[in-house]
Design brief:
One of its GO terms (molecular function) is phosphorelay sensor kinase activity. The protein is an alpha+beta fold and 382 residues long. It folds into 2 domains: 2-156, no CATH class; 195-359, Heat Shock Protein 90. The protein has 10 helices and 7 strands.
Length: 382
Amino acid sequence: MKKLEIWLKRYRLHFLIWALYIAYECIMVALVYGDIAKPLVYVTHYIIILCLFYSHANLAFAWALQNKLTAIWKLPLVILVEVGVYLLCSYVNDFVLEKFHIIAVGSLHFSDQYVIRNGYRCLFFVGFSSGYYFLKTYSKERIKTAILERQRLNEIISRHKAEQDLTKAQNAFLKAQINPHFLFNTLDFIYHHIISVSPVAADAVITLAEMMRFAIDADKVGEYIKLGDEIDQVNNLRYLSVLRKNEELPFSFAYEPDIRELNFIPLVLLTLAENIFKHGDLSKGQAASLEVYLNDSLLIIESDNVSSRSQHNSHGTGLLNIEKRLKYAYGDAVDFNYSQHNDGHFRVIIKIPVQLLHENARTLPFSTGIDKEWPHEHVDPR
């Protein structure tokens, strides 16, 4: 019933037009000939006409006009076939009606007059059906054009919105550049005003500025740096931690000189070292270590420290982030493991084929320091 309701709603205009036309034709026949045929006569004849009308518009005429060259012979052929079929159907229909005495017996004669009258009627409805075909085609093209125009407008709107978003992003990028620039210039100002008073504090400012510049420039997942650049920042972090604690810390950082030229994703070593200083127990007797070396065509990174009791489970987020970034950069070839042992030691082991590091040889231009290079040696805090 729902489908029938949708179908009736879709073709309600067709029903209205046909109802008006059939009513008009019946009235005109009654006025001109002074006679009204039985309803069954009208029903059967208009069924034939409706079949002719819609089969011509939806099938035959559309088939004939598929190709402009072949339409020259297809169109006359279609019309001749339709006239022949219509004459045959009309004659068979009238024969059956006469057989059952619906129309007067003996009134049916297949003569030239019968052929001309019904042939003309067939051509009359074929003409209207052709007009309906062109109207329907024109309507479809208009709808298609309207849809395409709407899509084009939506694309223009989307493009305009994308341009606005790009402008906002560019402004945000400029602001992001301005803010660190202001920060580094401020650190530059502090450095120059305290270097004569406290060389240790001035050196701490330089070191902090270098680490911050490295973190800002390196925070681009998927890009690569020289491993030596991050090794320098781990040494800077250790130096700042010693300054903050005001004592030597039991932390050893060992690496092979050859690995400094390897290309690697940033902020892996620095995050591991930061976890050690932040969450590890670096009291006397509790040594921590970070090692980077080559073994059997593998780059191996190992960290080992005793976890402080209050921060026993604080390593998770940073390590998961490292693992995701390593998997993204180097795929499933990465072997990443970390574990908490009964003796309190927390160990991390990362193994990556060196070949992958050579394949990802695109590096970022790094500029450590503030707005200029400040060559310096770390000042002994004592």
